[in-house]
Amino acid sequence: MITHQTEHLVLTSMRPEHEKESFKLHIALDVLAYFQEGGLGWQERLSAHLRRAAGKSNG
Fold first, then answer.
1. Do 36 and 45 form a contact (C-beta atoms < 8 A)?
2. pLDDT in tens, 12-59
């Protein structure tokens, strides 16, 4: 992607900030239920918790 910024062409990455990969994960049913009971977005909530636990939080 090319964007124009004050008379300079700037190349920006098309890659998302946090790339994702599908894989199989075995997780306790009670933990899965905890995240799913909040409805849609449970995978993002689980990922956010894992990021914080890994010290990878964005803020």
1. no
2. 556 566 688 888 999 999 999 999 999 999 999 999 999 999 998 765
Confidence category of residue 2, pLDDT binned at 50, 70, 90: very low
CA distance 27 to 11: 40
Q: At what angle do helices 42-53 and 29-36 cross, to 10 degrees?
A: 120
Q: What 3-state DSSP class applies to 29? A: helix
DSSP letter at 48 equals H
Biggest CA–CA distance in the chain, Å, is 56
Where are the extended beta strands (E) located within the chain? 2-5, 8-11
